[in-house]
DNA sequence: CAGCATCCTTTATGATACTG
DNA sequence: CAGTATCATAAAGGATGCTG
């Protein structure tokens, strides 16, 4: 459903960013990683609504897109640390802008529960 | 597939923004409307890759979410103008941030065509 | 012109259970 | 612990044709 990055690039630069970051949980994951590297389980506890498979897929795609680095430690039990790449670090302004906009939007919803469609899209 | 806004709000503010703006074409439409109101056909010509139905749906959802205003003129032939609401106008920083990030990303791709997955997601 | 109706395909996301 | 495998489902996005 999401545009391939190269095709998005032919349309509009914003669409490139959307195709890489638009997936559910992806920007939330990036946001949490902004504070520093986290293990798979730690990320999972920070985003309980996402199951392991979904989480794995999102992280793999972010990795393929060069946003996230995956560090597998050869230990038992396994330890896998995720961190932002240099490119991923450049997402900070986007994360901040969307975080504050989303917070404002949520505040409006709370103030006027009748506004917006709110439940027209499932999970 | 996309989270309902209210559920997203329980997870993370960034997820609220993603649920509203994450759909294909949506941020591109907002970007074009930043320059001023546009008619349906004008928007379509600016985003030729999206067909009428997809365009209509995206605009309706943006309208329901309070980002876009739809102005139907009682004329023949019909004239429908889309514009940003006040709330939609507050998206400018996000649009700018994602536009420049996407442009940088596309430039990297062009410089090193082997990087990224680029075609792992269809349209 | 700006849509809507219909039908279709893809795939994102999830539930659940198993494994090195 | 950090996954993978399998199966299921809804919904996003699209093609095409009709209409006030």
UniProtKB/TrEMBL annotation, chains A, B:
Record keyword RNA-binding present: no
Organism superkingdom: Bacteria
SUPFAM superfamilies, alphabetized: Winged helix' DNA-binding domain (SSF46785)
Record-linked InterPro entries: HTH_HxlR (IPR002577), WH-like_DNA-bd_sf (IPR036388), WH_DNA-bd_sf (IPR036390)
Protein name in the entry: Helix-turn-helix domain-containing protein
A Pfam family matched in the record: HxlR
Keyword list, A-Z: DNA-binding, Transcription, Transcription regulation
Domain HTH hxlR-type: 12-110
Coiled-coil zones: none
